[in-house]
Amino acid sequence: MMKKMIKTLMICCILMTLFGAELKAHASEPPTHFPLIQNGDPVPWKKAEQLLPRGSIFTVIDKETGFYFKVQRRAGSSHADVQPLSYGDTAVLKHLYNGKWSWRRRAILIPVNDQLIAASMHGMPHGRGSLPNGFPGHFCIHFQGSRTHKKENMDPSHQLMVYKAAGKLEEYAANASPEQLIVMFLAGLKQQDKAIVQHTLSSELQSSAMIRDYLLEIHALHYELVKKETRYPPFVKTSVAAKVKMHRSDKPDIRGTLYFTLKRSSITSGWKITKISQK
């Protein structure tokens, strides 16, 4: 049954890719009319590493668009370092990033052994590459619990994209601590991902002009939590502060400390950001 499901999904991806390419042949952004409804499994890195050993060739499906391409895993001990398999695969990857290489994370699905694995990728060539594919280096794919090479830390943006690929953003936000929710919000802004950001906000903030402008204007963001949450009785209101550097297109950068107010309806409910201010 799983084999039939995977086969059906791949056929749908082919049709969506061809149809979407025809519709958007002259557009500046890749088509987003055909997001995949199917979610992946958040497989821990140690298991994913065994399922996708070095030298293996596998398919990467972009969850937002249905576009797919093939890669080969070449290296990586804390996550997978991969290269597009051919010039055509490189063209699809570059199209997903609007024709420009980018560090921006994207939620992806990887079919392997009758299973869809939830994962995350960026689109920036770096390091060494050896395949004749027109891609100057390799790029990284992260899985649940995978880590970066240099700092050996889990990358929050990659982990959130894994949750997105698994359809678990809402569940993660509902169980997040106030500090985790703020990291989720800031990481979502950094990736310009509305789906991630919206899960952290109250309904009032979701429709605010400030959030809309942030999502449209911010093209780079650095952040660091500088103050632990301060709880107010009866544990349904708290605050978190973060030092930020937000780089915006055609507008002055935002530098300083943002103060977040969070509330929840009961001690068992999830937190939501209700107010953002800068002092």
Topology readout:
Elements lengths: L1 H22 L21 H7 L5 E6 L5 E8 L4 E5 L2 H10 L5 E11 L2 E9 L15 E4 L13 H10 L3 H7 L2 H13 L3 H5 L4 H4 L2 H9 E15 L4 E12 L5 E10 L8 E7 L1
Antiparallel strand pairs: 1-2, 1-4, 2-3, 3-6, 4-5, 5-6, 7-8, 8-9, 9-10
H/E series, N to C? HHEEEHEEEHHHHHHEEEE
Average residue pLDDT: 88
Please give the radius of gyration in angstroms. 20 Å
Number of domains: 2
Question: How many strand elements?
Answer: 10
Strand arrangement across the biggest beta sheet: 1-2-3-6-5-4
Q: Helical segment tally?
A: 9
**Sheet of most strands:** 6 strands, antiparallel, barrel
The assigned structural class equals alpha+beta
Given the C-alpha coordinates, what overall shape results?
globular
What's this entry about, in short?
It is built from nine helices and ten strands.
Keywords:
single chain, 279 residues, alpha+beta, Nuclear Transport Factor 2, Chain: A, 2 domains, four-stranded antiparallel beta sheet, 10 strands, 31% helix
Molecular structure report:
- With about 280 residues, the chain is α+β, with helices and mostly antiparallel strands.
- The chain folds into 2 domains: about 160 residues, no CATH class; about 110 residues, Roll (Nuclear Transport Factor 2, Chain: A), CATH 3.10.450.
- The chain has 9 helices and 10 strands.
- The strands form 2 sheets. Strands 1-2-3-6-5-4 form a 6-stranded antiparallel β-barrel, surrounded by 4 helices. A 4-stranded antiparallel β-sheet has the order 7-8-9-10.
- The protein is globular and about 55 Å long.
